[in-house]
Amino acid sequence: MENKSVRRHRWKHAAIALGIVVVLALLVVPFALAVAIYEGNFGSRMQTPAFMERTLDEFPALSESASTFVSDKGQRLAGYLYTSTDAGVAEDGTGAKGVVVIAHGLGGGCNTYMDVANRFAASGYAVFAYDATGNDRSEGDAVGGLPQGVIDLDRALDAVAQDDRLRDLPVMLFGHSWGGYAVGSALADHPEVKAVVSVAGFDTSSAMLESQGRQMAGGAIALLMPYLSLYEHFKFGSYADASSLEGFASSQAQVLVLHSADDATVPPETGIDRYREEFGDDPRFTFVEFEDRGHSFLYYSDEARDNIAAFNEGYYAYREANDGANDADLMNAWRAEHFDKRTCLMLDEDLMSNIVSFYDEQVR
Question: Are 169 and 276 members of one domain?
Fold first, then answer.
C-alpha cells in the first residue's frame, strides 16, 4: 500500500501541473491568441488598390516634389510636397498661406488623398503628405499597429519644422480615419499646430480594437482586450496610450470634427461622441455629423457616393457570378475596367470650401 509520503508527493506534483495548466489557460494561451489577432491585422504591408491610384495627370495645376524622412526605427518614409502655381505658390512652397499636413487612413498610402491635396493647394496652401510605415512607397515590413500612425505623423511634423521651405508657415492638419486618430493624438507634442480637421477619426487604439473586435466576436472581445493592450504596449510603449482627447486638451488649436452617424468602420461612439461630450461647449471645437455618408467617402459628393454604390453592386454581382472570391486577378481586372474616378471621386465642394475657410481663419 502506498504510504502517506508518496501520496503527498504525488498530490504536490499534480497541484503543480494543475497550476501550470491554469497559468497557460489564463495567461499564455489568450496572450498568444491576442498576438495572432493583432499581427493578423497589422503584420503586413498595405498598398493602395491599383484601380484607385491617382496620378498627377489628373490634376494639371498640381506640382509634386518627392522627399523622404526617417521614422522611429530608421525606416525611410516617402513624403510629397504639393503646390499650385495657379494659386501663386512656387514649387518650394514660397507664397503659401500655410502648410497642410495630410495623415492618410488605413489600407494604402497618401495617393488616394491627392484630390484633397489638390483642393488645398489650389486654395493657396502648401500640402505635405506622406506614406506611413509599411504603406505604398515607404519602408517597413508591416504597418505594425495603429499607434504607428501617431509616431509617423510626429516624425512628419518634425520634418516640416526642419524644412527651410516650410518651417515658418502656419501648420494645419487633415486626417481621415487612422489619420484622424493621428492628427488628434499628435497635438500633445506639437503646440505649433494651428488647426486640425479630423474626419471619421477615433480617440484611441484600444477603442478601435474593441469596437472592431466586438463586431467580430461580440462581448467575448472584453476577455482579450487586456492581452491586446499588453502586447500593444510591448510594441509601442507610451504611444500605445495615444489619445485624441488628450491631444485636443493639451493644445490651443482650432478643431473641426467630421463624422457620419452611419459609420460602421469607426462608429461615432469611438470618436465624435467622446469629443463632443468633453468639448461640446468649447468654442475651439466645431462638430459636424452627417446622417448617411458612411466612412470612406464622407467628404465626397452625394452623386459620387451614389456612383460608388452602383459600382460596388456591380462588383459583388460579378464576383458572385464568376467565383471571383478565388481569383483576385479576375476581380482586379474588372475593377480597373469599371471604376470611373471622374464620377466616383468627386469631392463635396461645399464641404471642402468650408474646410478651407476654417484653415483661412487661422492664418489671417
Answer: yes
Shared domain check, 281 and 159: yes
99-103: strand order across its sheet: 62-70, 76-84, 126-130, 99-103, 171-176, 193-199, 254-260, 285-290
Q: Which of 149, 210, 160, 155 is nearest to 184 (CA)?
A: 149
- pLDDT the model gives residue 21: 47
As a 3-state breakdown, the chain gives helix, strand, coil percent values, each rounded to 5, of 55, 15, 30
DSSP 3-state assignment of 260?
A: strand
The model's pLDDT over 287-314, given as tens digits with 9 standing for 90+, comes to: 999 999 999 999 999 999 999 999 999 9
Q: Between vectors from CA 249 to CA 246 and to CA 251, what angle results, nearest 5°?
A: 110
What is the pTM for the complete model shown? Answer: 0.92
Spatial distance between the Cα atoms of 50 and 7, rounded to a whole number of angstroms: 69
For the CA atoms of 27, 33, 35, 41, the dihedral, rounded to the nearest 10 degrees, stands at -150
Burial code (b: 16+ CB inside 10 Å, e: under 16) for 24-63 equals eeeeeebbeebbebbeeebeeebbbeebbbbeeeebeebb
Same structural domain for residues 2 and 24?
A: yes
Contacts of 150 (CB under 8 A, 6+ apart): 181, 182, 185, 186, 239, 242
153/279 same-domain check: yes
Integer-rounded Cα Rg, in Å, for the chain is 24
* 280 domain residue, yes or no: yes
DSSP states along 276-335: HHHHTT-TTEEEEEESS--STTTTB-HHHHHHHHHHHHHHHHHHHHTTGGG-HHHHHHHH
Q: Is residue 358 part of a domain?
A: yes
CB atoms within 10 A of CB 136: 20
**Residue (of 149, 183, 198) closest to 298 by Cα position:** 198
pLDDT < 50 regions, the chain:
1, 6, 15, 17-25
Which helix (H) or strand (E) segment holds residue 91: the answer is: none
